[in-house]
Amino acid sequence: MNAIKDSINKLFHWEYFPFIVFAFLMLMLHLGMKSYGDDLVYREVLRNQSLWMYITNAYEQWSSRIIIMPVAVFFAGQGFGLFSMADAVVYFLLPFIISKIFVSDHKWEHNWIIVFLLACVPFATMMSTAGWVVTSIHYLWPLTIGLVALYPLKKILLEESIKWYEYIIYFAALIFGINMEIMAAIIMTFYIAFSLFLICKKKLSWFLILGTIISIGNLVFILICPGNSVRELAEIATRFPDYIDLGVIQKISLSFTASLICIDQNFILLVITGMALVFSWHKDKMTRIVGVITFIFGLLVNLARVILMSPKFNGLLSKIEGVNITDWIDYNKLMNVVPGLYHYIILVGMMISSLFLMGLTFLLFKNSKKMWIAVMVMGAGIMSRVVMGFSATVYESGARTFLFEYVSFAIYGLLLYQEFKPELSGKTQRLLIQALCFFAIAGYLESFLRVLQLAS
Fold first, then answer.
1. Apex CA 404: angle with CA 398 and CA 406, to 5°?
2. Under a CB-based contact definition with an 8 Å cutoff, are residues 404 and 183 in contact?
3. Membrane spanning segments where (predicted)?
4. CA-based torsion, 229, 393, 408, 256: positive or negative
5. Residue 65 in contact with residue 138, Cβ under 8 Å?
6. What is the pLDDT of residue 337?
């Protein structure tokens, strides 16, 4: 009996146990999922054409994702159980690689923090937008595998040894990750930044230089891919004919308007702004003020989503007042139209919110060795939303495009916890962990209810 208890205790305190729990919980969600939407389309792809013909046609007429799309075709054509198992592995890999990149001590504790923060991310809402299989493989998988391609940057920076077979893994991860446009931009930015830093330090790395060249070349490949142009023109003609005449500021205004309209109910923004507020209270007056304002902005964004766009709230309002939200706000007049006054009001508000978030990052980490990493992580999250305005499907893409921002928020939350947890009293530390646990459970239940809603 004692041997069994010791084994259970050893498993529970294993540093990777939190990731097993997270992957298992996400696998349980898959029990209520089934193929639909684009999953059904991808399932039929190889019925009347070869794989090579499909890739060629995709490149010429639809997309530069010539590596990701065949993977999606394969899993869509198999039983949903195979995808579920593979997806669970990805859900294990996501917190695992975040830990490998950003955690160096107190691993069991910090790994639980990663899991708590990721559980606040509404994965089920995002991954259900176009079909579970296709959306996950096009968004979640490149993000996760792309993070694997960023791990060698840390090893090179710290001058850790890299075995020959690791180079093969990192190179494969790089190629897969950069085949998705948003992840390609993030990886390229980090590779260029690290290359310039190491060149200044006179520490050249052949892998880093090669990866930077490949990332830049991939950007050129994306820009010249005929399929991307064909699809963009088709989307413009079908959904948004005026889009082709919009300027840069107008497109950025679309980014922020879509961010408010398409945002899904989530806790991660509220959690990280709340954590920043708690930690700012141990700093100077200016940092406290910026922390309060940033938290208020985060709260308002969440309330806007819950109140203005919630079907439940709309139904309650209709019963009490006899009116609908749409009687006051016509979302159709904000979507797929030339930006007007309301778009620019949203643009100013969201820009101020983003600037306060970045400013708070500088204030909190100004005396930390992690400052530039925190700035780059937060910047990557914000820019992943900004670039969406440069696509005619900025509204139609919906919730799934928030994935990169939300995961960057989770990483940012980890950096906050690592940096400032020692400054808190024992009681405050316990309250913080309990709060994170509460929001993690709430986030998971939200995903659970979303799966039930789609299954019914």
1. 90
2. yes
3. 12-33, 66-94, 115-141, 167-194, 206-224, 252-277, 289-308, 341-365, 372-395, 401-420, 432-452
4. positive
5. yes
6. 76
CA-to-CA distance for 424 and 444, rounded, in angstroms? 27
Gyration radius from the chain CA atoms:
22
Q: Are the C-beta atoms of residues 148 and 93 closer than 8 Å to each other? A: yes
Cβ neighbour number for residue 275 with a 10 Å cutoff: 24
Angle at 304 between CA 303 and CA 310, to 5 degrees: 90
CB 59 within 8 A of CB 171: no
135 CB-side CA count, 13 A: 22
Residue 379's CB is within 10 A of a number of other CB atoms, namely 18
C-beta of residue 93 within 8 angstroms of C-beta of residue 16: no
6-10, 127-131, 172-176, 449-453: least confident range: 6-10
Instruction: Reply yes or no on whether the pLDDT at 331 is more than 90.
Output: no
Domains of the chain by residue range: 1-224, 240-423
Percentage of the residues of the chain whose pLDDT score is greater than 90: 46
Q: Give the pLDDT band (50/70/90) at residue 242.
A: confident
How far out from the chain centre does Cα 125 lie?
A: 12
Tell me the per-residue pLDDT of 350-397, one tens digit each, with 9 for 90 and over.
888 889 999 999 999 988 888 889 999 998 888 888 888 778 777 777
The burial class, CB within 10 Å (0-12 / 13-18 / 19+), for 371 is middle
- What does residue 64 show for φ and ψ, rounded to 5 degrees? -90, 0
